[in-house]
Design brief:
α1 (2-13) packs across α2 (38-52). This protein has 188 residues and is mostly helical. It has a three-stranded mixed β-sheet with strand order 2-1-3. It starts with a helix and ends with a helix. It has helices spanning 2-13, 38-52, 101-123, 128-137, 145-153, 160-168, 182-187, and strands at 20-25, 30-35, 80-84. The chain has one domain (2-163, 171-184). Helix content is 45%, strand content 9%.
Length: 188
């Protein structure tokens, strides 16, 4: 319900630009991959930032913006997919603690690209099947919940609110032209 309302609201402001991507729902976390125009992405991040300001009552907690890319020639996902990820019976050892943040993020992105290649071919126009079958058909492509939790807890990525502050206030170094000492001016 939240995402449907959010995407409908985004379409009001950016008509014709649909949202595509995938939402992976874990028992302890959520991973969003959202593809749309930059205005829609900005609107979605603003909404997530407003959720974050609700404190302990917020729908989502400990949110991080991992990557925002511009001018991508094609989308990874042709539609919006949602799937609930249930853990497999055998639990793999959590290796995120022994890796650097860059390695964990790279592993996460590689799995996302593989998942993006798999989903449209397998589920074509029936995204309803995705909710029931993805974690059983391709468990090796599902990003482990430990990885998502690790990335959300690292300080190296920005919260939606921090991301918006950086996005809306780009870095502009001050020019020091008025602070040149007088002695140097006379030699020029």
């Amino acid at each position: 319900g939240y995402h449907k309302r959010l995407f409908e609201n985004a379409l009001k402001y950016h008509s014709g630009e649909q949202v595509s991507g995938i939402l992976l729902l874990y028992s302890s976390c959520v991973l969003h991959v959202i593809e749309s125009c930059i205005g829609t992405i900005h609107l979605i991040i603003q909404d997530l930032a407003s959720l974050q300001n609700q404190g302990q009552n917020a729908l989502f907690q400990e949110m991080k913006v991992l990557v925002v890319s511009h001018n991508i020639p094609t989308r990874l996902f042709p539609d919006w997919y949602v799937t609930t990820v249930t853990p497999s019976v055998t639990y793999l050892q959590d290796t995120t603690q022994a890796q650097s943040t860059e390695e964990v993020l790279t592993e996460c992105l590689v799995l996302l690209f593989k998942l993006a290649a798999y989903v449209p071919k397998t589920f074509e126009d029936d995204s309803d099947d995705l909710n029931n079958d993805l974690h059983t058909l391709a468990p090796e492509l599902i990003i482990p919940a430990e990885t998502v939790n690790y990335l959300c807890n690292t300080e190296e990525f920005s919260s939606p609110e921090e991301f918006l502050k950086m996005y809306l206030n780009p870095f502009q170094p001050a020019l020091d032209s008025g602070t040149v000492p007088t002695a140097l001016r006379t030699k020029l």
